[in-house]
Design goal:
The complex is a heterodimer of chains A (about 110) and B (about 650). With about 110 residues, chain A is an all-alpha fold. Chain A has one domain: Helix Hairpins. With about 650 residues, chain B is mainly alpha-helical. Chain B has a domain of about 70 residues. Chain B is built from 25 helices and 2 strands. Chain B has a two-stranded antiparallel ribbon with strand order 1-2. The longest helix of chain B has about 45 residues. Classes of the chains: A mainly alpha (about 110), B mainly alpha (about 650). Chains A and B meet through helix 2 of A and helix 25 of B.
């Protein structure tokens, strides 16, 4: 198990997770569809998860992996709430475009 | 010292019951008065009779010349200052206790009749009970702080009761005036207390006395302390120049005038000085000041009393005048004579006020003597008792007022002939205006309207009973202090001797005046009184003179009738400048500076908010953009800025 993880150098993991995180950020900033934005947020979370697992593996410490499980559980709950909100928004305005949702302002 | 001392004395229970009973009565009346209706008044009266019984028990059981300290709790420590909550039971406090509870219960009884139709019946009795409670604290405390609690408390109750009919604005003003005037005096008391704390580290009477004795005769510290205490006494006991509240205080219901503004509360100042007699004896200059102020007040008030037409105002000024007489006695170091006059005065002045109340009751609220006359035929009991009170205050033997007044005059004669002359003159004026009051009210024929005449009736038994009891006391109370020419034992002086023993050691004893001289003094005083009574008889009965309407007065009598314009002078000198100053502060400080600051802060916040709220665009994309940018900035700060 450890060997499989450590088959590639740790830098690669770092680069991959940075890359994933940036994709997530760009998606959140640039896309207008709320579902895509939600998915991009997941992408960022998972980039961090990957980082945690790799560090945990290289450091020989299981705490990082335990933490990842917690993040997954919380993310699942968050997605459930987020999707529920999106469903109810879609029922009201027949769209998931965040630019339409601009009523709450000064 | 730290653990509470367990009292084994058999006086413990009655002592704590004395203040507790009226307090209980107050709570019952204040909380359940409305439900109880007229029963509440009977409860209030009953607790007072209970307190009187306890006072009698103390009087009978305290060993002669003894004194006992009953500690309820160790109140507080602060550094080296220790203030216990303790009562001092000695002949002086027992004298006051008997007067307060005795006359107080009679006046409660009287109020049952007098206030019967008033809608604030139970409120009235709750205030009265509260007043008695505070007054008892005042005279029972074994240190100045407890005395001060009572001192402030009676001031509060006086305020509440003067403004009892609070729908009348003039009455409210009178109440406020009394309160403010008293506060001026209280400031003196407080300063005196702080000085005692500073120099003697204690407020207990004994400790302060010991400390003062160490400082010795004529020490400036003691002179200042006593002067400040005297300022307090001036306010409470209505002496020049703080007397103006007392005549206005007559706005309250008449039993209040009798109880608070004649018999008990106003004598608090005299009690306080008598209680601090060691301090005052060590400060001869203060005593001189007291003597002068007392004499001046006595004379001034007597003169003003000559021209008053309101039946209660006459009595009010006569109270001020008699208080002046008592202060003059204290100023000569004759503490027991002053206290003696307090006791006799309490009887006959309460009687006079209650009698006046009965007259007002019969007249359906009318107080102007010019509209009375001939009432003697209709309200016989009131007339008889009122006459006894008048004779007593005028100093005709063998009524109570004669003995106490004679004692003060004899002391004055031995002390200073001028003072004696002034006080005798003031007593003579007293006899004149009191009989003027009697003649105008009770003799010749009725001057009011027929409607009022039809209404005149004798008061109910609850009102006449106290009158009769007080009249009896006014006749016999003087015999507890017979002058030396009649008896070798002065019961009252002997009873109080232990309280003033130390002062007698400090003060140089005056030489006794000879018996023949005293006979001459007595003769002079009585003759003067009789002459002025005859003069009043000649003017108001033979010539049927009726005081002119206010606007017809001219010259000196107009000045006197307007009380020498003292109220107006105070208005111009003190009230108006303060009002102007407050207007100035209102416009300049409050409106201009404070308001400007507050409004400026509100304005700035508002403007910033106006600008910043534009950031809330409603576009989710923008928010997320801001979030990411902020995070990048935070990261950059963490990485590049070394904190």
């Amino acid at each position: 198990m450890e060997n499989t993880m450590q088959a590639v150098p740790q830098n690669w993991y770092l680069l991959l997770s940075t890359f994933m995180f940036c994709i997530g950020v760009m998606g959140v900033l640039l896309r207008r569809n709320a579902i895509i934005i939600l998915m991009c947020i997941e992408l960022m979370l998972n980039a961090v998860n990957l980082l945690l697992v790799s560090f945990s593996s290289y450091a020989g410490n299981a705490e990082g992996q335990v933490f990842v499980f917690f993040i997954m559980v919380v993310a699942a709950a968050e997605v459930a709430v987020g999707l529920a909100l999106l469903v109810s928004i879609y029922r009201n305005i027949a769209s998931t475009d965040i630019d339409i949702l601009s009523k709450m302002k000064w | 010292m730290t653990q509470t001392i367990i009292q084994t004395s058999n006086l413990y229970l009655p002592t704590i019951l004395i203040p507790l009973l009226p307090l209980l009565g107050f709570f019952i009346n204040a909380l359940f008065g409305k439900k109880l209706g007229h029963t509440s008044g009977w409860i209030a009266t009953a607790v007072l009779f209970g307190a009187f019984a306890c006072s009698l028990f103390l009087f009978l059981n305290l060993p002669a010349g003894g004194s006992e300290t009953i500690t309820i709790s160790n109140w507080f420590y602060f550094k080296n200052i220790f203030v216990p909550f303790a009562f001092l039971i000695d002949p002086l406090s027992i004298t006051m206790l008997l007067v307060i509870t005795g006359i107080g219960s009679l006046i409660h009884l009287y109020s049952l009749g007098y206030m019967h139709h008033d809608e604030g019946f139970s409120r009235f009795f709750s205030y009265l009970n509260l007043f008695i409670f505070f007054m008892l604290l005042l005279v029972m405390g074994n240190n100045y702080l407890i005395m001060f609690i009572g001192w402030e408390g009676v001031g509060l109750c006086s305020y509440l009761l003067i403004g009892f009919w609070f729908k009348n604005q003039a009455f409210n003003d009178a109440a406020k005036k009394a309160f403010i005037m008293n506060r001026i005096g209280d400031l003196g008391f407080i300063i005196g207390m702080f000085m005692m704390l500073f120099y003697f580290n204690s407020l207990n009477f004994d400790t302060v006395n010991i400390g003062a004795l160490k400082l010795g005769m004529g020490n400036m510290t003691i002179i200042y302390i006593t002067l400040f205490l005297f300022v307090g006494a001036m306010g409470k006991s209505a002496q020049l120049p703080l007397y103006t509240w007392l005549p206005d205080a007559m706005a309250g219901p008449t039993p209040v005038s009798a109880l608070i503004h004649a018999a008990t509360m106003v004598t608090a100042g005299i009690y306080m000085i008598a209680r601090s007699n060691v301090l005052f004896s060590l400060a001869p200059h203060t005593l001189d000041v007291i003597l002068i102020v007392g004499t001046a007040t006595s004379l001034f008030a007597a003169v003003v009393g000559l021209k008053q037409n309101d039946i209660k105002k006459v009595l009010a000024y006569s109270t001020v005048s008699q208080l002046g007489l008592m202060f003059a006695a204290l100023g000569m170091g004759a503490y027991e004579s002053g206290m003696f006059h307090v006791v006799t005065h309490a009887f006959f002045k309460a009687l006079l006020f209650l009698g006046a109340g009965s007259v007002i009751h019969a007249m359906g609220g009318e107080q102007d003597m010019r509209n009375m006359g001939g009432l003697g035929k209709y309200i016989k009991i009131t007339f008889a008792t009122f006459l006894i009170g008048t004779v007593a205050i005028s100093g005709i033997p063998p009524f109570a007022g004669f003995f106490s007044k004679d004692e003060i005059l004899a002391t004055a004669f031995e002390h200073n002939k001028v003072i004696w002359g002034l006080l005798s003159f003031s007593s003579m004026l007293t006899a004149f205006y009191m009989f003027r009051l009697v003649y105008l009210t009770f003799s010749s024929s009725f001057r009011g309207t027929d409607e009022v005449k039809h209404h005149i009736h004798e008061s109910p038994a609850t009102m006449t009973m106290p009158l009769i009891i007080l009249a009896t006391c006014s006749i016999i109370a003087g015999f507890i202090g017979l002058p030396t020419i009649l008896s070798h034992t002065h019961l009252f002086k002997n009873y109080l001797a232990s309280v003033f023993a130390q002062s007698k050691l400090i003060m140089p004893a005056g030489h006794e005046i000879s018996h023949s001289m005293e006979w001459i003094l007595v003769g002079t005083a009585v003759t003067l009184a009789l002459v002025s009574i005859a003069f009043a008889y000649q003017k108001y009965v033979m010539q049927k003179h009726v005081p002119a309407a206010d606007e017809k007065l001219k010259g000196i009598s107009k000045v006197v009738a307007n009380k020498f314009y003292v109220d107006e002078i105070y208005n111009t000198v003190f009230v108006k400048p303060i009002m102007l100053l407050s207007d100035l502060f209102l416009v300049v400080v409050d409106k201009l500076i404070v308001d400007l600051l507050v409004h400026a802060i509100a304005f700035i916040t508002n403007q910033i908010g106006r600008a910043l709220r534009l950031l809330q665009t409603g576009h989710v994309g923008f928010y997320m953009f801001a979030m990411v940018i902020s995070m990048i900035i935070l990261l950059a700060v963490q990485i590049f800025v070394v904190i």
